[in-house]
Amino acid sequence: MGVLKKFEQRLEGLVNGTFAKVFKSEVQPVEIAGALQRECDNNATIWNRDRTVVPNDFIVELSAPDFERLSPYSGQLGDELAGMVRDYAKQQRYTFMGPIKVHLEKADDLDTGLYRVRSRTLASSSSQQGAAPAAPAPGRPAPGGYGYPPAAPAAAPPMPSAPPPGSRPGGYGYPQPATQRPAAAPMSGGRTRHWIEINGTRHQISRPTLVLGRSTEADVRIDDPGVSRRHCEIRTGTPSTIQDLGSTNGIVVDGQHTTRATLRDGSRIVVGSTTIIYRQAEG
């Protein structure tokens, strides 16, 4: 069973259906959970062959209406989301520098149903071994990172377990690899291959369009009550795109509700309670 499905099942039995009522707002817990997974993937730092470190401190920014609905349950929801991150990290063999925390915050610039996820890596006191906490990387904060103003370089020496010099700078003083899953090297004269992954199963996209839905007439059938008969359509090209086909519950692409979006290798699509990974590679 997938990590997101387990998360949903735990949430359903949390407080006798209270969450089912409060989550009638646009933002659904599984969407936030999917965004946290992607935040881990996008900010994973390879320290050595056996250790890949991901953020452990997350803030989920919500619109004022969604925050008002969810804030009374923020403690329980934060614990469940942190547990989901822990399960996902175990599955991906990620490690953390400190305890996992997930907080909810209100963002007045967001409309109902929209949210942002920010993250950083915070080392526990035992991991720091007395060293000062790592300061945010200088310059303008990257998307997904905490929007704190740049801090002066710490006077304390770096932690003994710091990555080797020459690594590409990442968020909050931790080097970040160029990509978490390197794409295959382009083959001379090759063409781009497109496919999607659903619950570990690969579905090749061999035509210009691919319809996803619950109907047997869809190109890829998704057995999910939250998915419409003809839910959405992927169009391959330069770039590839996804289009909502008037579905009941809509689509979420890389953490954002949308009706149409550009896809990149690794884009995470949520339809109903099902997560789809879009992939493309040369050759």
UniProtKB/TrEMBL annotation:
Region entry Disordered, spans: 120-189
Pfam families linked: FHA, FhaA_N
SMART domains (UniProt xref): FHA
Biased composition (Low complexity): 123-134, 174-186
Phosphoprotein among keywords: yes
Transmembrane region(s): none
Record-linked PROSITE patterns: FHA_DOMAIN
Domain FHA: 210-258
Record field: compositional bias (Pro residues): 150-167
Domain of life: Bacteria
Keywords on record: Phosphoprotein
InterPro entries: Cell_Proc_Reg/RNA_Proc, FHA_dom, FhaA_N, FhaA_N_sf, SMAD_FHA_dom_sf
Protein name, per record: Phosphopeptide-binding protein
Source species: Streptomyces bungoensis
Phylogenetic lineage: Bacteria, Bacillati, Actinomycetota, Actinomycetes, Kitasatosporales
